Amino acid sequence: MTQDETRSDSRRAPGISKTAIWVAAARAVGAREPDPNVRNPDHLAEELLGDPTKLDLEHPVVDALSSSYDEAMRDIEIAGFVRAMTERTRFIDEALERAIGAGATQVLIPGAGFDSHAYRFRELLASARVFEVDRPEMLDFKRSRVDAALGGPPANLTYVPIDVQKEDTSAVLARHGYDVSQRTFVIMEGLTMYVPEEALRALFRFVASHARGTSVVFDFATRAMVEGLKQIDLATLPPAARSGLERFLNLIKNEPWLFGFPVDGEKELLTELGLELRELLRIGSEESARRYLTRADGTTLGAEGHAKAEALRKAAQARIVEQASPEQRQKIEERMREQARHMAYRIAEAAVA
Ligand SMILES: C[S@@+](CC[C@H](N)C(=O)[O-])C[C@H]1O[C@@H](n2cnc3c(N)ncnc32)[C@H](O)[C@@H]1O
Question: Between 263 and 208, whose confidence is greater?
């Protein structure tokens, strides 16, 4: 049987989020890093995904699971993605450990996908209850993988099938024994961009209705990124940028990005929803690389690929500036700086106000 035939077999299981496979695959590749200082701590991602040739996603990061780590990381698209997911996982893991240390007794994971916190942190979470929320088809598949790879879920974990866009999350959770009066840690990883604004606001308001001390981590795109994705004309892009972006647009064809935060307006939006911004970190920033991607010898994970990607981006910008008239140049450069500010992908922690 060819790889394509095997893959089309798995397509009989519709509803499994391709973006969930995509991010878990990047964690799985990052978990193969030999240096623990810069390794993705999600050592269960690979087992939870299972045989990569059976996954319903054709993407270099999935193919990377069938090649060596060093070879995979020579690809700048893969290396960049692995770096970003390592930053994200490390930020969330640290926040989880802090929250449980401070007395959280419940963990809620909307849009859980292949999230592995309940299984990786069994000991830390031994006296907490964990609720994984996702669409029914995704959770069914996840459960079958958990059974096959880990021999079943821990006793403190409850799977709650909910479409947060269509159902009242709080009512369904309550039917599963969820208790908003508990101090809770909420993980909304890779979720905010896939949920329409009203439903996302409702989800944040629900978080804000929990006991004091409750906190939430979430990563997010900006409004400009989401709008920009709708307007991209691939034909106008340089070939080096085109293929990766085309793959990304294809990936999110059935899971479109719907919501982006207003740039520099995160704090106000959260305040309006009853939450207080505690920490904000730009994924891919120097600060994030310093914290999560720095080896013991001071070098940075994937630095070469990152430098190459930056050089390509700058060369493309320089070409645009060169083609402009001298009077237009300053304006174009300003617009590019503004665009860069608007293209930031960030992760944050907020707490019940
Ligand atoms: C990019 S994946 C992230 C998965 C996981 N949190 C992670 O980071 O590995 C997005 C996840 O959100 C889930 N999701 C998206 N929209 C949803 C909705 N309306 N209701 C429930 N789950 C949703 C998808 O099924 C998918 O598992």
Answer: 208
Question: Using one digit for the tens of pLDDT, what is the confidence trace for 176-235?
Answer: 999 999 999 999 999 999 999 999 999 999 999 999 999 999 999 999 999 999 888 888
Distance of CA 159 to CAs 18, 140, 280, Å?
Answer: 20, 9, 29
pTM of the entire predicted model: 0.93
Phi, psi (5° rounding) for residue 329?
-55, -45
Find the 204 Cα to ligand 1 centroid distance in Å: 15
Residues 86 and 236: their CA atoms lie apart, in Å, by: 32
Q: What is the pLDDT of residue 43?
A: 98
State residue 79 phi and psi, 5-degree precision.
-60, -40
The CATH number that domain 3-223+252-286+343-352 falls under is 3.40.50.150
Residue-range domain boundaries for the chain: 3-223+252-286+343-352
CA-nearest residue, atom 23 of ligand 1? 111
With tokens 């999560």, the residue in question is 292
| pLDDT over threshold 70, residue 315 | yes
* Beta bridge partners of residue 222, listed in sequence order: 261
Q: What's the residue count for the chain?
A: 353
Q: Which tokens in the block code for residue 301?
A: 């994970």
Task: Specify the ligand 1 atom closest to the Cα of 188.
Answer: 6
Q: Is 112 in the pocket of ligand 1 (CB under 6 A)?
A: yes
